[in-house]
Design brief:
The complex is a heterodimer of chains A (114) and B (110).
Chain A (H helix, E strand, L loop, with lengths): L4 E3 L2 E4 L5 E6 L6 E7 L6 E7 L2 E5 L6 E5 L5 E5 L8 E8 L9 E2 L3 E5 L1
Parallel strand pairs in A: 2-11
Antiparallel strand pairs in A: 1-3, 3-8, 4-5, 4-9, 5-6, 7-8, 9-10, 9-11
Chain B lengths: L2 E3 L4 E5 L4 E3 L2 E3 L5 E7 L6 E5 L10 E2 L10 E3 L8 E8 L8 E2 L3 E6 L1
Classes of the chains: A mainly beta (114), B mainly beta (110).
Chain lengths: 114, 110
């Protein structure tokens, strides 16, 4: 079991650019969630997708968007990057969207905005 | 809105000493509570969840609804317990999202 895989591992962008982060869930998992972790803080929820539909959205601006593909992989897109978008972006997968469901996290993509 | 508070950024103990990592939450309903752990150079992983009422690696956590707390405890700390610990909350919103605390770094010295 390869676990949740994310790409790229590191990324450097400049202000105003666009970025796409990718995530492959554990085989058999149909739910993918995205979290942003700023240095010194806990992860903060951005989106959850289940069966290719958005099931939840956190308190993030419309510059953030995501989608899930038929193979359950997912992309997180961020437009018009700001310095404050610099963070570790974590993807997590789960089998269902039950409230007590265990989430399996990837290693993350470290985004630096200059 | 729901919130999770972990008052200690760093907790340093000696091997064999008892450990208590504090977690308080605010939520008007009945949440699900979790502890996630991140060991050095490893990914974030589930340590335990209150619904399972289990003990993992000697750690236990009891949900106290009166005090809105979910403190993590271990009677005898081991050096391999050194890690970043996050308390997290989920609630019946139709999707399994987590609200995390800021985390507590546990350092266990020999």
């Amino acid at each position: 079991d390869a676990g949740v895989t994310q790409s790229p591992t590191h990324l450097i962008k400049t202000r105003g650019q666009h970025v796409t982060l990718r995530c492959s869930p554990i085989s058999g998992h149909k739910s993918v969630s995205w979290y942003q972790q700023v240095l010194g803080q806990g992860p903060q929820f951005i989106f959850q997708y289940y069966e290719k539909e958005e099931r939840g959205r956190g308190n993030f601006p419309d510059r953030f968007s995501a989608r899930q593909f038929p193979n359950y992989s997912s992309e997180l897109n961020v437009n018009a990057l700001l310095l404050g978008d610099s963070a570790l972006y974590l993807c997590a997968s789960s089998g269902t969207v039950a409230t007590n469901e265990k989430l399996f996290f990837g290693s993350g993509t470290q985004l630096s905005v200059l | 809105a729901q919130r999770v508070t972990q008052p200690e950024k760093l907790l340093s103990v000696f091997k064999g000493a008892p450990v208590e990592l504090k977690c308080n939450y605010s939520y008007s309903g009945s949440p699900e509570l979790f502890w996630y752990v991140q060991y050095s150079r490893q990914r974030l992983q589930l340590l335990l969840r209150h619904i399972s009422r289990e003990s993992i690696k000697g750690f236990t956590a009891d949900l106290n609804k009166g005090e809105t707390s979910f403190h993590l405890k271990k009677p005898f700390a081991q050096e391999e317990d050194s890690a970043m610990y996050y308390c997290a909350l989920s609630f019946n919103s139709g999707y399994s999202t987590l609200t995390f605390g800021k985390g507590t770094m546990l350092l266990v010295s020999p």
